[in-house]
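Before drawing any conclusions, I looked closely at one protein's amino acid sequence and its backbone structure tokens, quoted below without any editing.
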Amino acid sequence: MSVTFKLRTYLDVPRKGWLYLYIPDELLGGVRRRVWIEGTLNGMPFTATANPWKDQTHVVTVNRHMRRTLGIDGPVEVELEARVSDEPLLDIEIPADLHDAITSDPSARATFEALAPSHQKEFVLYLDDASIQATRDERIRKSVAVLRRGGHMWENPAEQFAEDLRGA
């Protein structure tokens, strides 16, 4: 599919901490399935997954890492120029320390390998947000514990990693 489009809209904040970009289905070729888009958001390179939503739209979650990279803080007007891709566009490079920790635990490794690329990417972003080595080491420990249990990064958004913080 070779669909390109331009959209000027506002990011929506349906709940604290999340920003969403809604794209009308007709701009994505009228499909009602997940699609991958790449282009620019406010002139900055942008790659994302657009998932079917209600009312003939697709939704893109603009996560913290994307907001920080794009310099977006809150509901603002944005301009998206993009093309739809038939293939996933996620390029994930697993840091060596996270890779070593996950592969040394067979249960964690099996869970991680079964995750969708977008969920694997969340573990990498969570780790890369650490600014000091001690925090990074602790986040690796927590990540392996969650994966060992068969969970994923945001298994319970209200209590993410709660068991690990209590020493699980």
Observations:
- The radius of gyration is 17 Å.
- The chain is about 35% helix and 25% strand.
- The mean pLDDT is 80.
- Helices lie at 64-70, 96-103, 106-114, 117-128, 133-148, 162-165.
